[in-house]
C-alpha cells in the first residue's frame, strides 16, 4: 500500500481517497507509527499529511526519523512537508507570512520536473499554513514559490523525497490530482492497478477463509452499506448466508419491494422478512417525544431481529452448522475515527440499521472495513445491485418515525410516503441527486393551517422540505434548489396528497439545525 501518515485534522482521509482515485491502494496510519511498523507494511510510497500543529509547538506531532531512512519514496504535504524539511536538515521558520485559501504558485524550473511536470508554470493552489520552509534541505531542488513563500515545493529525485506546501488533495488546488499522480506513478513508479473491482475477488477469498463452513446472518436495511456487505458475503459463501430484513413499517415507498424483489433477484440471497409494522406502530401509539420514539424503535428492532435469530439458530443447530458470524457494513472512516487505523485499537461497532443487540454472540464479518463510501457504491454496481439501492442517499434507521413531528400513525405514514415519493421523483428528474446529500421530507402532524382549495376552506398540515448539501453529515448547508423545481414539488404535493395544504422550505444550516427534525 501507500501509507498516509496522519498528522491530525481531516486531511489524511481525503489524501487516502485521492490516492485511491489514482488507482493505488492506500491506508491511513497514525504519525506515532515506528519505522519498524512501517517496514512491516512493505509500503510502495508514503504521504505525510497536513495537520493543525506548528512544528515548534511543544508536543507537536513528529515522525520517527527512521521512516525517512527506509528508502521508500515519500511526499510531504503542508505540515508533513515541514516535518520532512526539518528532519532532513532544512529550516522551518515563522516568517509572519500566513497563507490561507487560494494562492498562486509559480514553478521555478521549466524543465518539467517529475512532481510538477505536465502542469502550467503558474497554478492556483489551496494553502493553509502559518510556518514556512525557509531553506530547503541540502540536495533538494526548490520547485516552486509564491509571493511570500520562497520554498513552496521541493524535490530530491535521487532519494525519492518530494514535498508541497499546498494541499493537492483539495479540489481547490487546480492541478492537485496531477501532483499526487506524478508522485505515485512517475516519482515512485507505482502501477495504477488498484480498483474497487479487484477488491471483490480479494474480499471473497478473505470471507471464505474467515467463515469456513459456519453459517452467517446479516441484517439488511435497504441502505447501501448493508446491501453491499451482504452481497459480498453472498458471493463468497452464499449457501451459508441468511439475510434478515425487518420491515418496521417506517420505510419509504418502494423500499420493501426494492429489497424483497430487486435485491433478491440481483443477488440470489436467502432473505427472511420480519413483518413487524404492527408491533412497531402499536409500540409508538401515543408517543410524541423524539427520544422516546428513537428508543422504542431501537428496542423493537432488536426484538424483531432476535426473534428471527432464534429461529435461524434452531434451524442451523438441526443441520449441524452453527451460526457463528454476523455481517456488518462498517466503512473505513468508522475504523479510522475509532482509532482502528493501527489495526489494534478497539473499534466502535457501527449500527447502520436500528441498532443491533449489544451482546451478540457472533463474530463480525466486515468486508467494507477498508473502503470509502464511493468505493462501496462502485463495488455494489460491479456486483450488479439495483441502482436505486446503490445510489440511495442516507436514510436514518428509525425511518419515517422521526420525520413525523407528533404521533406516528398509519394514516400519517401513508401521507408522508406519498409526499416523500413526489419529492424524490422531482429532485431526481431535475438532476439534483448529486448536489443533494439527502432531503428529509417532514410532516408537521401537530400543526394545522388554513388554506383554500377549489372553492373550499381547508385546514391541513404543512410538509417541510429539508434538502441539504454535505460532505459527511457532520455539517451541512441547505441546498439552493431552483425555484421552479420547488414550485413543481409544492404544486404536486398540495394537489396530490390529501390533507396537505402547505409546503415549506427549511433554510437552516447545520449547525444550528440538525439534518433530521427529530
Ligand atoms: P442529524 O439529524 O443528526 O443527522 O443531523 C445526521 C445524519 O445521520 C442520519 N441519522 C441517523 N441514521 N440512525 C441512523 O442510521 C439514526 O438514528 C439517525 N438519526 C439521524 C441523518 O439522516 C443524517 O444523514
From TrEMBL:
Pathway: Purine metabolism; GMP biosynthesis; GMP from XMP (L-Gln route): step 1/1. Gene3D superfamilies: 3.30.300.10, 3.40.50.880, HUPs (3.40.50.620). It catalyses: XMP + L-glutamine + ATP + H2O = GMP + L-glutamate + AMP + diphosphate + 2 H(+). It comes from the Bacteria. The active site is at 78 (nucleophile), 167, 169. Keywords: ATP-binding, Glutamine amidotransferase, GMP biosynthesis, Ligase, Nucleotide-binding, Purine biosynthesis. ATP binds at residues 221-227. GO terms for molecular function: ATP binding; GMP synthase activity. Catalyzes the synthesis of GMP from XMP. Homodimer. This is GMP synthase [glutamine-hydrolyzing]. It comes from Agromyces atrinae. The gene is guaA.
Amino acid at each position: 500500500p501507500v501509507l498516509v501518515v496522519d498528522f491530525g485534522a481531516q486531511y489524511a482521509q481525503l489524501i487516502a481517497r485521492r490516492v485511491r482515485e489514482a488507482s493505488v491502494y492506500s491506508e491511513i496510519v497514525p504519525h506515532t507509527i515506528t519505522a519498524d511498523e512501517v517496514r512491516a507494511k512493505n509500503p510502495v510510497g508514503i504521504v505525510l499529511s497536513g495537520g493543525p500543529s506548528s512544528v515548534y509547538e511543544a508536543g507537536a506531532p513528529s515522525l520517527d526519523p527512521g521512516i525517512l531512512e527506509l528508502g521508500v519514496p515519500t511526499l510531504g504535504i503542508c505540515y508533513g512537508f515541514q516535518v520532512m524539511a526539518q528532519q532532513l536538515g532544512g529550516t522551518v521558520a515563522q516568517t509572519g507570512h500566513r497563507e490561507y485559501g487560494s494562492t498562486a504558485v509559480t514553478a521555478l524550473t521549466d524543465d518539467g520536473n517529475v512532481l510538477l511536470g505536465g502542469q502550467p508554470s503558474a497554478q492556483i493552489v489551496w494553502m493553509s499554513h502559518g510556518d514556512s520552509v525557509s531553506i530547503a534541505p541540502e540536495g533538494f531542488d526548490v520547485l516552486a514559490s509564491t509571493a511570500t513563500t520562497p520554498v513552496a515545493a521541493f524535490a530530491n529525485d535521487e532519494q525519492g523525497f518530494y514535498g508541497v506546501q499546498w494541499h493537492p488533495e483539495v479540489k481547490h488546488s487546480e492541478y492537485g490530482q496531477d501532483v499526487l499522480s506524478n508522485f505515485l506513478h512517475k516519482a515512485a513508479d507505482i502501477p495504477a492497478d488498484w480498483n474497487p473491482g479487484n477488491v471483490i475477488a480479494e474480499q471473497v477469498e478473505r470471507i471464505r477463509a474467515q467463515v469456513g463452513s459456519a453459517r452467517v446472518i446479516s441484517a439488511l436495511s435497504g441502505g447501501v452499506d448493508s446491501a453491499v456487505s451482504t452481497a459480498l458475503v453472498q458471493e463468497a459463501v452464499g449457501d451459508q448466508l441468511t439475510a434478515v430484513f425487518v420491515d418496521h413499517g417506517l420505510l419509504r415507498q418502494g423500499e420493501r419491494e426494492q429489497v424483497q424483489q430487486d435485491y433478491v433477484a440481483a443477488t440470489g440471497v436467502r432473505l427472511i422478512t420480519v413483518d413487524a409494522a404492527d408491533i412497531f406502530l402499536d409500540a409508538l401509539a401515543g408517543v410524541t417525544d423524539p427520544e422516546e420514539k428513537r428508543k422504542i424503535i431501537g428496542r423493537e428492532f432488536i426484538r424483531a431481529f432476535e426473534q428471527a435469530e432464534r429461529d435461524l439458530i434452531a434451524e442451523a443447530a438441526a443441520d449441524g452448522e452453527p451460526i457463528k458470524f454476523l455481517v456488518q457494513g462498517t466503512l473505513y472512516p468508522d475504523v479510522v475515527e475509532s482509532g482502528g487505523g493501527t489495526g489494534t485499537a478497539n473499534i466502535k461497532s457501527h449500527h447502520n440499521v436500528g441498532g443491533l443487540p449489544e451482546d451478540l454472540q457472533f463474530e463480525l464479518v466486515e468486508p467494507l472495513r477498508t473502503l470509502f463510501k464511493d468505493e462501496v457504491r462502485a463495488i455494489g454496481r460491479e456486483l450488479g445491485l439495483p441502482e436505486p439501492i446503490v445510489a440511495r442517499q442516507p436514510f436514518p434507521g428509525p425511518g419515517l418515525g422521526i420525520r413525523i413531528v407528533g404521533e406516528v400513525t398509519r394514516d400519517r405514514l401513508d401521507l408522508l410516503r406519498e409526499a416523500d415519493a413526489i419529492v424524490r421523483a422531482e429532485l431526481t428528474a431535475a438532476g439534483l441527486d448529486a448536489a443533494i446529500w439527502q432531503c428529509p421530507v417532514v410532516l408537521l402532524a401537530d400543526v394545522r393551517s388554513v388554506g383554500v382549495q377549489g372553492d373550499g376552506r381547508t385546514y391541513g398540515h404543512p410538509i417541510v422540505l429539508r434538502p441539504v448539501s454535505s460532505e459527511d453529515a457532520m455539517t451541512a448547508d441547505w441546498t439552493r434548489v431552483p425555484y421552479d423545481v420547488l414550485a413543481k414539488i409544492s404544486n404536486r404535493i398540495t394537489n396530490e396528497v390529501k390533507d396537505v395544504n402547505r409546503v415549506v422550505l427549511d433554510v437552516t444550516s447545520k449547525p444550528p439545525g440538525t439534518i433530521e427534525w427529530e
